[in-house]
Amino acid sequence: MNYLQSRFMQSAFYACAAVTSCLILGCSFTAPQDSGSERIPLSPNSSSDTPRQSDASDELSRHAHKKSQLQPNILWILTDDQRADSIAAVNRVIRGTSESALGYVESPNIDALAKEGVLFTYAYSQSPGCSPSRYSMATGQYPHRSGRYGFEYAHRGNEHAKPTMPEILRQAGYQTMLSGKSGLRLREWQPEKGERQTPLTYDFEVERYALSKAGFTDWGKNTAYDPETWEPLSTSEHFYYSDGSKKSFLVSENGKSIGAKNPIDEELDIVRSYTRSLKSLILAGESPKPAGETLDGFILKAFTQYLSHPNASYTSVLGDKIEGPDPTKPVMLSLSFGFPHTPVLPPKSFRDRFKTKQYRIPKFSKSDVESLPPQLVKLYKNMKTDDMTSEEKLKTIQDYYAFTAYGDALIGEAIEKFKVFNETSGRPYLIVMSVGDHGWHLGEQGISAKFAPWNTSNHGAMIVVDSSGEYFPKDTVYNDFVEYVDIAPTILAASGLDVENDEKLSHLDGFDLASVVRNPTLKRDYVIGELNQIIGDRAYLRTKRFGFSMKVRPKLGKPGETHAPGEDIHWALNAKAEDVEMALYDLACDPHERQNVAYHKDYADIVAVLRTKTQNIFLGDKRLEIDWQKENVSFESHFASGAHDYRLPKALTEEASCTAGL
Predict the structure, then answer these.
(1) I want to staple 644 with a disulfide (CB 3.0 to 4.6 A). Which of 473, 498, 531, 617 is the partner?
(2) Average pLDDT over every residue of 626-642
(3) CB 148, CB 532: distance < 8 Å
(4) pLDDT the model gives residue 25
(5) Using a CB cutoff of 8 Å and minimum separation of 24, what contacts does 601-608 make?
(6) 3-class DSSP state for residue 474?
(7) Taking residues 140-161, what's their average pLDDT?
């Protein structure tokens, strides 16, 4: 942890310094003192009014004598563009019903996993975009502290580039394997002859794009580029069938979408994003392959193939030579599914069951856009789907939840295979389930997309289970904020690394979640996130009462593209209120974030506090800007060191009844 985090934790944490090096039931976990923080049982027979609490002295006595050198096997499950409300267990806690606000969801396997450990219902991603979010999770850093804001490629030449979590685990003695999507967009800087341009972060990788390119999927696409300018010339889609056949169609040419429908759209009942700027995205439809034979099905096959070859070499479906795991050594597995990212193509067996489900289409009016600042108006215009027909909107919702239900079935099978492997290896285990690298709008704010500062783009959920059930207590809910930067320190601490005191890990911005569930001083008043994609740099800060976001850099582009790293770093501090394009939502009165009150006089004092806090965190508290097109050019800002202290005035953080009359 960095200095600020250590200072933030020390009041209740150092009292158990002797215990923090203890290991629980064979896992190299760092056990913090249980100071009586609330844990809500998930059992339907238990009342949330009578939360389970553990006696601190009993907890300490149990942990003090349990120590083992065995490192746990670790499974990290990550999905893509998945909303937290696609998980029934999350809805039961937040809404009191298994349904989402839109309607029926189905997640029996993830629900069962939640009962085995701790369900974190308010987990927030650090960026509503795949690559910056995944890079943030993999390095344990906020984007503004890693210098990775969007979809630019990072590289190892910059002095500030940090190793990823699997690389650190490899050095700690772990065997590592990725099955699915990495999405890190990481390259070597001028690789030596014979080296890969994209470095391996895991010992073995069966990457989703390689699977798709090789035809181990139900859908794929390829783009032809001009060899001199690298401008896209044309894009073709490919649909793969279970009989081995393939149908291909041109979807764009010279950078423009082909307007006419192709025959496959009617065959598979496909709904495309024709009202958006990018008109070819598949928002609904039926997979041409049955369950188990889709891209995610092959991702699962690659995962189970690895586990089924202990102490043996084998050839993957891609033709790579892979060494199966040595059961005498710990293994870290990253299982990264593609669902429910576009193309949204659930298999027929799942789609048919959801066709009869009725859903509530999110409320939206074009008048909602009138209160938005220009940045967010641009986002709406690029991503809008409110002009689709009601039938099309319904299909996008039905197929999205059908797709997540299919993914739940795959996750259930993966967990079962992992547990069988652990039984044979005799090691303890840790399972971390991340519900989405961020969220996805299904009509909220008039869009079907991500890339937004609103709650639906950023709210996720996490489940953490350890085989002992003591470190992450079974059947427990944590109802305060956590962030996706907590994933890396949680996994690294479980492996036996000292995330609190190891200088090599001082870049980690998150907390070990096993400490969070026991230590009330780690409760956050707010969560933060940011993105520089589509509309330029925008940062958000969210409490249980308010959702706030603002423009933090003046130019639409990344360092090295439109401005030098650090250029005009104080712009937002000196700019007029209108120029930083603020948005504020009073969640007590406007839980669906439809009316921006940032420039309403009644909220002036609140806006002043949140603006100052936000710009100081994102611009002055160790902000790093890197020109990734050069080997080692960067700028680091420290004019507001300590601004990110997780604290805000009480009136801004607590849930309340509406008094503003909105």
Answers:
(1) 617
(2) 96
(3) no
(4) 31
(5) 602/660, 603/660, 606/546, 606/652, 607/548, 607/577, 607/582
(6) coil
(7) 95
